[in-house]
Write a structure and sequence with these properties.
Layout lengths: L5 H27 L3 H34 L7 H10 L2
Length: 88
């Protein structure tokens, strides 16, 4: 298992906290009876933020795997492909 460097994860954590705030905003919008279009627009923004966080985590993991393997072919490409596709 790859351990992700904390300094790389700080940006991801910041992005996830922003998405958490956006989700709270969506809930408030629903409670306030806001227009469907506004709510869906905000949900799309949350979805993009979560996707980007996921891709950043996978990219960092891939980078770390390459560093740890010293360039050897020990990287499980099927596993990495499965992670990427899980976000699609």
């Amino acid at each position: 298992m790859v351990e992700l460097p904390r300094e790389d994860m700080d940006k991801v954590i910041k992005r996830l906290r922003r998405a958490q705030g956006q989700i709270g905003g969506v809930l408030r919008m629903i409670d306030e009876g806001r227009e469907c279009e506004e709510i869906v627009t905000q949900l799309a923004a949350v979805s993009r933020a979560l996707d980007r966080a996921g891709f950043a985590i996978i990219a960092t993991g891939l980078k770390q795997c390459l560093i740890d393997s010293g360039g050897e072919d020990s990287l499980d490409s099927e596993k990495m492909e499965k992670l990427f596709l899980s976000l699609a």
